[in-house]
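ESCALATION

Customer reports they have been waiting on this structure for their group meeting. Please prioritize. Original submission:
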Amino acid sequence: MTNSSSLSIPKFISLLIIYLIGIRPILNLLHFIKLGSVANYEVSFLSIWSFIVLVLIVIRLMFPPRHKFFSNRLIIAFIFIMIFFGLPRIYSTSAVVTEILYSLIFLLGILVSYKLFSDYSIYYLSNVIFYFSIILIILHASAWIWYPYSYGDLSNYIGSFPDKFLSSTTFLAIIPFLYIRLIKKRSFPSLIVLLMSVLFMFWTFRRTVLVAFLFGLLFFLFYRKRIRLLMGSALFILISFIIIPKEYYYEAFQRKIIIEYEDYLHGNVENVGSGRIAVYLLGWNKYKNANLKEQLIGFGAAQSHELAYIIWQKDTYAHGQIIATLYDYGIIGLLFLILFFYSITKTALRYKMYNPKLNGAIIFVIFSSIGITLSNILIATGGTGLLVAILLGYSSTIKLNYENTRNKL
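Update from on-call: job pushed to the front of the queue and completed.
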């Protein structure tokens, strides 16, 4: 955090961005409220939030400090491909919002990360998210009361949030921030809010998000080398499933997995992974039969939506970041994405001794994000993705802090 106590223009913009980041998880509860339509796209509170935060991020990027990071150059290269090769061949006008706007927020969020943390510490942002998370948990826990049309009663509410993926990714995104606050404050309220967020995330029964969480947790525990924390996490997860009616997780996990496995054995891939496997195979077959230009730079922004439409008969994401990136932006776009994750992972591990506990949270975010890319969309996830992007970009701040500390010695 800067030593200056005056609120300069860059610091004021950073402050606005931080509070917009903090309030976004609460806005996700209002995703079903529409305000009108523009160019066949339904405008919501989230659309307005996305536009405002994108403008503020662009403005903040114009101000110093300025540093050259390899990971940031990879992001800039990806943005170049997306704008100049992807946008002219975009799938639909509505995809300008769901693909270009949301992707830009995520990618530019990575770039602006170290600038935000040159103005305010990561602990300040974690505090902001902590207090908004309390409101989120209260609203989320009582949603069956104030939104009975969807839930009916509490028994129907468990695992029945209107958009379970949005709900689960929201809690997945705030968990590392709550952990960062916990290691800083070491307070009982911080622990309770963190555990409640993990609990609500599990109760959404979104397999892709839970696998991503466990993937990140595994690498976090391996990095921290904490056996007691591993046992405690396993116990908490076990309790999370024991205290809810058996039929909920039986329907969401055991029965569904058994049925999908039988479909796979009989060649009915459309039903495996809720249709994901069929999307992946369809996308790969179309890609490998494409011409050289399309193999290099892809078919165009959000063109992978057509894969989802063929399988699910609706305009949505391909539910797989790897196949979506390969299909939309070609092998070059996918290569930039892989190199980016390699770069930030290498940086986080290289400077792990600067702040091992904080680095553990970054390791969790990196590997849980990799888990998401394997079975769902990461880059174009809208505002929730911005929380993840800020922490992915924090590896650059770790490097700067380490170098500044070493130079003072």
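Sent to customer with the following note: Confidence is low (pLDDT under 50) at residues 150-162.
Escalation resolved.
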